[in-house]
Every structure is written in C-alpha cells, then in structure tokens.
C-alpha cells in the first residue's frame, strides 16, 4: 500500500511555492516507518535538499535542509511554521542532522535551540525561536506525526524531455491540419473578451512559437479603453519564409461594461464575415452597410468558424453584473448561430501557488481548478475552458506547449 502524506493539497502547494517551486517526494513517515530518528537518518541522508514536516495538535512546523543530510556534516537549516495559509520562517543556521534529530547532542557542537525528538514524540525549541516563528511560547510541542520529503526540481530531465517530445508532435499536427471537408483553407478563430484580458498577447505568443523568436505584431498594453481598436485578421507563417498555417486569429475591440467597448451588433457582422480587416471600430455605433470596409456578400472563408472568449483568470471573480449579462447574451447568439465557442483563460501562471512544473498540465493543477471553476460557477459562466499563461512563451518550453495545446483544442 502506498504511503501518502498528511498534507492537504493547499498546504503542499504553499510549501512548494515557498521553497522554490520544488516537487515533494515522500521519503519517511513516522506513523508508518516508526518514530526512530536513527532509522529516519538512514533513510533520508544523501537525498539532496529535504523538507521535514511535523504535525502537532495545533501546529504544522518543520525544517528545510538546503543541503543533503550527511552524517556529522553541517547543513543550512530553515525552520518554518505553517498556520492556515500563512507561512513564517526562521534561519536556524548550520546544524548536523544528528543534533537536529536528537541522535547525539554531545558529539557535535551544533545549536540546540530547535530539536526533533522522535523517540519521545516532541519538538524542543527556545523562546526566541518560538517568537520568530510566531508560535505560542510553550517551548515543547508534542508530535502526532512527522514526514520527510525529498525536494526535487519540478522539471527534471525526464519531464523536460517529455515536453520537448510533445511539442514536436503538436507542431506538425498544426502545420498539416485540414479543415473539415476542405471547404476552406484556413479556420477563422475570433478572440472576444473584456478589455485587457490578453487577446493580443495570446496571438503574439502563438506567433512567436512558429516564428522562432519573440514577436509583437499585435499591440498589447493596459489602457483601460483597450489597445485593439481595429478589427485585425492575423495569418501566421510557419517560419520566416514558410507557408501560412491553417488558422487565422481574429482580434477585435474588447468588451466593456459601459461605453468604449465593442458594439454588440458588430459581433454579428464579424461572425457573418461582413467586416474587412483593419476596420476601425466605433464604440458608439456599429458598422454601416455603406461603409467601405463592409463586405456585402461574404464567402465561407470570411466567416468566423470558432469563438474563444478570452478572460483573465484572476479577474473573473470581479466581473460586474453588466459584464456577465453581456457575455451571456453574446453566448446565446453564438449558440443560436451554431458557432463553436470556448473560454480561454489567460494569466494562469500569475495565480497564487502556481509553479513552473504546473504549466505542463495546468488543467490538472488543483489550485487552478479550484479557484477558476469556483469563480466561473459563482458567475454562472462555466463552459469548456482552456488555460493560457501570461508571460512570453518563446524562451519557455512549458509555455510554448501550453499555447500549442490551446490552438490544437480550438481547431478541434
């Protein structure tokens, strides 16, 4: 039977995030392997950096060793106390594992203001240490259980290789994608969403992957009235002199709660293919039928085949009732028109407790699933959601993979 940790996923994420985004691999558990510190050291020495987590009735405390435990050798120890979702730390300094775990206090000249006594099931610390960790000054804390974890890089060589291989398989799949029935050569994907949600940034990220360098063809910024003021249709070349890829990303003026955003009637014209590339939006009124950028008889290739609602994952909880009503109304029109649509959530890597290793399979990351889904359910805007990072993807293989996966799912 597998030995499992007593840590909740939230506490595990907090510890991972606090100690450099490490992945925690359980080495030792007192209630399973016994409260014998000599056995603990035999099992946990020479394992690289380790995290010891101690559970008492009222506290979760512990020690992080920056170097591998080795018999008689000093290691830098950082003490911590985890209370609810807040973590405090105190640098204990250099200490031998034998002293830290009360194996032989007299043999090694190490500080004794914090000791883990497994045999007697207690932690002993001085008043200053208790104060620095924000604990009640009790000096002795009883141990219900303790666990020792090996702290591993969240992206080890095996995972990095897996990311590279998956990226290699996604790139040719996107290059050779053929729209159903070959009725059009390129699928048009419209990006809709509130001002500042990251529509233009998403396009730049995808384009950077295929161009092989960071690009900023679409202007991005934080202007409250939006940066994208024109309707833009972006075809992407595969490399500097390559062929056009089988999809076009269409950018528009952002949605606004009040004035200044995209007119609802313009959305209908965009979906129908009536609006020409580079049309200058007027937030006060929709395009006129006699406008020189109005297409009277659009062909199938001019129409929108898929819509991605782009939302900033950290801002869903702050959507006003007006914005929710607007999104729901647009979605109803898409359903009636038979247009496939999904929600694409940006800035997920800026959320609390996210580590670089989480970006490989961000949809399975519990903090993301919990927060995003709860926010979406509260606002009643839940449907198929795709997740996207915030910062530039070109130099980060994980974020490249995330962008490629999003495009692949949009085309499906």
Provide structural commentary.
- By secondary structure, this protein is α/β, with parallel strands linked by helices.
- The chain has two domains: 9-153, no CATH class; 157-411, Rossmann fold (3-Layer(aba) Sandwich), CATH 3.40.50.300.
- It is 29% helix and 23% strand.
- The strands form three sheets. It has a six-stranded antiparallel sheet, with helices on both faces. Strands 11-12-10-13-14-15 form a six-stranded mixed sheet, sandwiched between helices. Strands 6-7-8 form a three-stranded antiparallel sheet.
- Strand 14, helix 10 (366-379) and strand 15 form a beta-alpha-beta unit.
- The model is unreliable at 105-110 and 387-395 (pLDDT under 50).
Largest sheet: 6 strands, antiparallel
Per CATH, the architecture of the largest domain is 3-Layer(aba) Sandwich
Counted by DSSP, the helix tally is 11
Our Rg estimate from Cα atoms comes to: 27 Å
Strand element count: 15
Range of strand content = 15-25%
| CATH domain class name of the largest domain | Alpha Beta
Helix content: 25-40%
Average pLDDT, to the nearest integer?
A: 81
Q: What string gives the helices and strands in order?
A: HEHHEEEEHEEHEEHEHEEHEHEHEH
Write out the CATH superfamily name of the largest domain.
P-loop containing nucleotide triphosphate hydrolases
Strand order of the largest sheet: 1-9-2-3-4-5
Low-pLDDT segments, ≥5 res: 105-110, 387-395
Shape type = elongated
Number of domains: 2
In CATH, the topology of the largest domain is named Rossmann fold
The structural class is alpha/beta
Question: How far is the N terminus from the C terminus?
Answer: 40 Å
Subcellular location: Cytoplasm
InterPro entries: P-loop_NTPase (IPR027417), TLDc_dom (IPR006571)
GO biological process, one term: response to virus
Protein name: Interferon-induced protein 44
């Amino acid at each position: 039977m597998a030995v499992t940790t007593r840590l909740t996923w939230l506490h595990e994420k907090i510890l991972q995030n606090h100690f450099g985004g490490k992945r925690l691999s359980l080495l030792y558990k007192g209630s399973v392997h016994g409260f014998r510190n000599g056995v603990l050291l035999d099992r946990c020495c020479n394992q690289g950096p380790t995290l010891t987590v101690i559970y008492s009735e009222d506290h979760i405390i512990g020690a992080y060793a920056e170097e591998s435990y080795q018999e008689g050798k000093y290691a830098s120890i950082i003490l911590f106390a985890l209370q609810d979702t807040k973590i405090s730390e105190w640098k204990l300094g250099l200490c031998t594992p034998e002293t830290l775990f009360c194996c032989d206090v007299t043999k090694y000249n190490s500080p004794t203001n914090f000791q883990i006594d497994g045999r007697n099931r207690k932690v002993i610390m001085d008043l200053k240490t208790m104060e620095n960790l924000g604990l009640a000054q009790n000096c002795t804390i009883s141990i219900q259980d303790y666990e020792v974890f090996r702290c591993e890089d969240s992206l080890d060589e095996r995972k990095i290789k897996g990311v590279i291989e998956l990226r290699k398989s996604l790139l040719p799949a996107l290059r050779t994608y053929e729209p159903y029935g070959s009725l059009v050569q390129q699928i048009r994907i419209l990006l809709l969403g509130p001002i500042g949600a990251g529509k233009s940034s998403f396009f730049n990220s995808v384009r950077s992957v295929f161009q092989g360098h960071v690009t900023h063809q679409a202007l991005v910024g934080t202007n409250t009235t939006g940066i994208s003021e024109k309707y833009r249709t972006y075809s992407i070349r595969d490399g500097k002199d390559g062929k056009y890829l089988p999809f076009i990303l269409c950018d528009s003026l952002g949605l606004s709660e009040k004035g200044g955003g995209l007119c609802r009637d313009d959305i209908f014209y965009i979906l129908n293919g009536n609006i020409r590339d580079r049309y200058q939006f007027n937030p006060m009124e929709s395009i006129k039928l006699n406008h020189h950028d109005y297409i009277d008889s659009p062909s199938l290739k001019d129409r929108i085949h898929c819509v991605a609602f782009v939302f900033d994952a950290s801002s869903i909880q702050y959507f006003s009732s007006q914005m929710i009503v607007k999104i729901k109304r647009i979605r109803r029109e898409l359903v009636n028109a038979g247009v496939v649509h999904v929600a694409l959530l940006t800035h997920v890597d800026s959320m609390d407790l996210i580590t670089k290793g989480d970006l490989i399979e961000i949809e399975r990351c519990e903090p993301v699933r919990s927060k995003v889904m709860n926010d979406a359910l509260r606002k009643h805007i839940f449907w198929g959601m795709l997740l996207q990072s915030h910062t530039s993807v070109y130099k980060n293989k994980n974020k490249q993979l995330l962008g490629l996966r999003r495009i692949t799912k949009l085309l499906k």
